[in-house]
Design a protein that fits this description.
The chain folds into two domains: 35 residues; 220 residues, no CATH class. By secondary structure, the chain is an all-alpha fold. Helix content is 72%, strand content 0%. The chain contains ten helices and no strands.
């Protein structure tokens, strides 16, 4: 249970091994040759088996480079749109939030990735983040840089923990994260309802203020960080199982969802710590 695109996917989910994608490498070549050439003579078969194994690039399968390139491109687009919004029309952040939410749900429930919709989601989130970051920066100078640095450092730490094997994604870990995220979602909805009902002093809602707000913020950052690790595991599973190359868009979208969530939680936590 990381980003929705990973949790529901037949490519990145826990049932990915049963998705039916063809094997790659020497075994995939042998199976392909066996089906295509059947009763070919021994000399030809020896030549085939002696050929170099096909790489993921040769077979059109997902690679880590594909995911890195797609994610890097989307992040660059997000930053560019956010910068323009910050300078020109920060008041449109609410429009970006609504459009981004709708496109995020559409992308999350699509079985096949749509590059156009994923790019549109990134643009909408760029408008949202650029506007909201401008508002926060106007009230707490330097807070955006702090939130960006905290997000980058957390991403690096989570990647290191995952690659080093110090944190392993097990079914128990995934179930714990699922229950915790559902609980956090319910908590957030209650907080929003109370805020619109006029309870508290405004700001981030009565349940996200003062010491309680700091505790909740730390929990939220922890959940987003755990989601990143689950995302890394899902991407590793997709690459290992030879998922089609087009799903690099899905992987990039999933990472974007989690990174945006993590950044917003840091932004809110830092604002609470610096005083409303």
């Amino acid at each position: 249970m990381g980003s929705p695109i990973f949790a529901r996917s037949d490519v990145f989910g826990e049932k990915a091994n049963a998705a039916g994608y063809a094997p790659t490498g020497a075994q995939g070549q042998q199976a392909q040759y066996g089906q295509q050439y059947g009763a070919t003579d021994a000399a030809t078969l020896n030549t085939m088996y002696g050929a170099p194994s096909a790489t993921p690039v040769d077979t059109g399968r997902l690679t880590y480079d594909d995911v890195i390139v797609k994610t890097g491109g989307l992040l660059a687009l997000l930053v560019a749109v956010g910068a323009v919004t910050w300078v020109a029309f920060p008041q449109l952040f609410f429009v970006g939030a609504i459009v981004g939410l709708v496109l995020g749900l559409v992308n999350a429930f699509k079985r096949e990735p749509s590059p156009v919709l994923i790019v549109a989601y990134t643009v909408a989130q760029g408008v949202f983040l650029g506007g909201i970051s401008s508002i926060f920066e106007g009230q707490w100078s330097g807070i955006v840089l702090q939130a960006v640095l905290a997000t980058v450092c957390t991403f690096g730490a989570c990647l290191w923990l995952f690659r080093s094997g110090r944190v392993r994604v097990t079914p128990r870990f995934t179930r714990w994260l699922l229950f915790a995220m559902v609980g956090y979602l319910v908590f957030s909805l209650v907080n929003v309802v109370m805020m619109f009902a006029g309870v508290g002093d405004g700001g981030f809602g009565p349940l996200r203020e003062g010491p309680l707000g700091v505790i909740v913020g730390l929990v939220a950052v922890g959940l987003a960080s755990a989601s990143l690790i689950v995302d890394f595991d899902a991407i590793q599973r997709g690459v290992r199982n030879g998922a089609p190359k087009k799903f690099a868009w899905s992987a990039a979208f999933g990472l974007m969802v989690t990174l945006i969530w993590l950044y917003l939680e840091f932004l809110r936590l830092l604002a609470i710590l610096r005083g409303e």
